Amino acid sequence: MQRILIVEDSKMVQQVLRHLVSQYLSVPVDFAASLRESAGLIKNNKYTLALVDLNLPDASNGEVATLTLRCGIPTLVLTGSIDEFKRQQMLEMGVVDYVLKENRDSYTYAVKQLAQLLGNQGTKVLVADDSQTSRTMMRQNLERLLYDVEEAEDGEQAYEKLLADESIKLLLTDYAMPKKDGFELVKSIRSKRGRDSLGIIGISGSGSQSLSAKFIKHGANDFLTKPFAPEEFHCRVMMTMEQLNLIETIKDSANKDYLTGLYNRRYFYQAAEQKVAQQSVLSLAVIDIDHFKQINDTYGHQAGDEVLSFLSNKMASQFDDALMARLGGEEFAILFSDEDQDAAFEKLDELRFSLSNIQVEAAGQFISFSISAGVAQLQQDEELTDLINRADVALYDAKGGGRNQVVIHQ
């Protein structure tokens, strides 16, 4: 479980940080005001990140940062002043970043950095460079940012890894590599993976001013010239990932239902048509909450919304490998890949049975509800609209037969 330690002795600054934490973070955060207090908390808790003030009443020379780093906690530093000696000292210690305590914007930046670092955890990054020294240096910098790092020693190896693992979200590639150089690598992978799924930063030790333009024209998001300062590396990586996350957020807003988090009707039809064209064994279910208008009329629309969210979460946890959507109102669709109608029926009936035997706490009240579902299996040369229509007919039969049941289309 992710957890953050914030060390700050000023009560006023602590108050500002607590407010910002409530806005930007959704993980447990512990506050300490001294080195001694910090040591006690670290002894009893495991922390993902730390944000620490360098100057404390019982530790005026950055001892708290030494403590957190020694305990393996990636650390951001708050400092009232910075000179070249202190900057170099902090970088040699291995801090993730430092933030000058200038105004409220400084604290906002620091807390946003914590949020972004938490989001980095588990994200895969690939470093492609024929120099072992360069790869090691970049790996160390990236691991401080909580990324999972993989390496490739030439462009061909990097290309194969990127094709094999679409969970890799960022590529850092050198220009001069054997077998396939950085330009060729970027050009090749961009034909397979767009800017919405992979960020790319080109790197070169050459002083040529045209290299950065060439990299970006070939499809890179950004460019770094060796040797680069750790702060520049940090900023370029974080900005590229921020762009990727922003694109993901925009896509989610366009493709997902705002209330349930499931896909919306438009996206479902697009994705389902592709699956129908590619697979021969598919089953589709259309699900409806029984007497949903009564729930809204009796308990209120907030309770109805919470029932919809509960059902969506239940489906997402029970059918995590299926394509699901809220078609509208209280109606949902599930497309089961590689499942015949009998297997789909068994899964849906298990869901129906579990729902009919529990009460949901919604808007401070306990509500019972049931679902009806219709299931149809894809037939040879059948189109998606016909498959959905047959599942709808089965749903109509389920409702006509008394509700709280699953019916297979005959």
From TrEMBL:
Residues 3-116, 124-241 form the Response regulatory domain. One of its GO terms (biological process) is phosphorelay signal transduction system. One of its GO terms (molecular function) is diguanylate cyclase activity. The modification 4-aspartylphosphate is found at residues 53, 174. Residues 280-410 form the GGDEF domain. Its cofactor is Mg(2+). Pfam families: GGDEF, Response_reg. InterPro entries: CheY-like_superfamily, Diguanylate_Cyclase, GGDEF_dom, Nucleotide_cyclase, Rev_trsase/Diguanyl_cyclase, Sig_transdc_resp-reg_receiver. GO terms for cellular component: plasma membrane. Keywords: Phosphoprotein. It comes from the Bacteria. SMART domains: GGDEF, REC. It is an enzyme of class 2 (transferase). The keyword Phosphoprotein applies. It catalyses: 2 GTP = 3',3'-c-di-GMP + 2 diphosphate. The keyword Protease does not apply. NCBIfam families: GGDEF (TIGR00254). This is diguanylate cyclase. It comes from Pseudoalteromonas piratica.
